[in-house]
Amino acid sequence: MRSNCVGSCSAANTPNVWRYYPGTTDPTTGDFPAPPNLSVACCSTLGFNSYQLSVAGCVQTPIACNQKVNVDTTGATDDDTGDAVNGMTHSISAGGDSVNTSPAPPPGGTSPFQFVAGTENPVVLSGGALASPANVIVSDSLVTVPVIDAPPWPPTSTTFPRVQIIGFLQLFLNPEGDPATPPNYRIHTRVINIVGCGTGGTAITPILGNGASPVAVRLITPP
């Protein structure tokens, strides 16, 4: 998964499937307001901007089906996203948690996805409370991301950058969010769950990451 923005997230960037958009993250006016710097345990000393804090921290504002939110069109965020994802997933040196897909989950398989603690998991680093690799049932690498309805293209001034949420993806962020070499700006993910906002959707209890609310500042265009 990589950004849909080239230079900036302006209307000139035609939406593409499985590309993400940054949401607005100003602490006062943003749809995904950034938490205070000191509240983000992984990154309080790294000089993160509001967007990075919203990715790496816990966005307290509820995000609902059919809600309309704004895409941040002010600039490119590839590098910022990679650094923030690596901070959130405790993967500064690629030591974040991982997901074991063998045996495969249903349908076709018999077991759910199993999460495995990485060498940089804070509990592993706390002094022997947990070893790596060890199976874990919670992980900061598990996030909930809204799916948006891309407007007719080219958009009018009354549509973009305001977009509507039509569902949610539950993603596991693999422990190499933005490899330094080469700088390809891809966020490697695995889809854990998906739910739509329509009347035909199945009610699924959401898996929440990094606290009590979804980490939801990466907006995905539908396939």
* Strands, count: 10
Oligomer: single chain
Q: What Rg, in angstroms, do the CA atoms define?
A: 17 Å
What is the string of helix and strand elements? EEHEHEEHEEEEE
SS summary, helix count: 3
Mean pLDDT: 74
Helix content: under 10%
What percent of residues are in strands?
15-25%
Characterise the protein shown here.
The protein is mostly beta strands. The protein has one domain (about 1-90, about 140-223). It has helices at about 50-55, 80-90, 120-125, and strands at about 1-5, 20, 70, 100, 115, 135, 140-150, 160-175, 190-195, 220. The strands form 3 sheets. Strands 3, 7, 8 and 9 form a 4-stranded antiparallel sheet that branches. It has a 3-stranded mixed sheet with strand order 1-2-10, with no helix packed on it. Helix 1 runs parallel beside helix 2. The longest helix is centred in the middle third of the chain and has 11 residues, at about 80-90. The relative contact order is 0.22. Mean pLDDT is about 75; it is low at about 200-223.
Keywords:
223 residues, mainly beta, 4-stranded antiparallel sheet, 3-stranded mixed sheet, globular, disordered C terminus
Produce a short descriptive summary.
The chain is mainly beta.
List the helices and strands and how they pair.
Blueprint: E1 2-3, E2 19-22, H1 50-56, E3 68-70, H2 78-88, E4 98-100, E5 114-116, H3 122-125, E6 135-136, E7 142-149, E8 162-173, E9 189-196, E10 218-220
Parallel strand pairs: 1-2
Antiparallel strand pairs: 2-10, 3-8, 4-5, 5-6, 7-8, 8-9
